[in-house]
Amino acid sequence: WWLALIMTVAGVLLYKKIRNNEKGKTILDKMALKTPIVGNLLSKVYIARIVRILGLLYKSGISIITGFEIVSAVTDNNIFKNEILKIRNAVSTGTSINVAIRSSDIFPPIVSDLISVGEETGLLDEMLFKIADYFDEESDYLIGSLSSSIEPILLFFVAMMVLLLALGVFMPMWNIDKVYG
User: Fold this and answer.
1) How far apart are alpha carbons 59 and 129 in whole angstroms?
2) Are residues 111 and 83 in contact, defined by beta-carbon separation less than 8 angstroms?
3) pLDDT tens-digit series, residues 35-86
4) Is-contact 91 84, C-beta < 8 A?
5) Beta carbons of 48 and 139 less than 8 angstroms apart
């Protein structure tokens, strides 16, 4: 038990050390986004947050370039932060927002398509809110499916715990039967 405790503490300390390093944080963020089920969920949550904050900033009168700077500062994931800064740089050189987002690897095409519609109609803030609502609904759906996919795994662990408890109760009785049998 003491070895497991030492390994756990060492693992937590190593994780914190890697997380505090900028390069290590980027690697951990990339690994989190590539995780099979959770990565897709994290990506959708980050996109919803980024687009909603950008919409709020744009609606309040802040320029889109300053909005991208603020969003990159409040984004926790380094992968998204770097992409937002690339998009900001492209927009500041005269590229339209939808073209800059389309060239990004982390934003799905629906984001750039809806932003294109918002730019053409002059209702960019409303389209940003619609995109955020869409990705919020998608992440809610993924959370629901995630809980149903985790359910068999949890059931297996509960069954193993019951088996361990039953063996702990019955093994001594079987050993007593062999001694007095």
Assistant:
1) 10
2) no
3) 887 888 999 999 999 999 999 999 999 999 999 999 999 888 899 999 999 9
4) no
5) yes
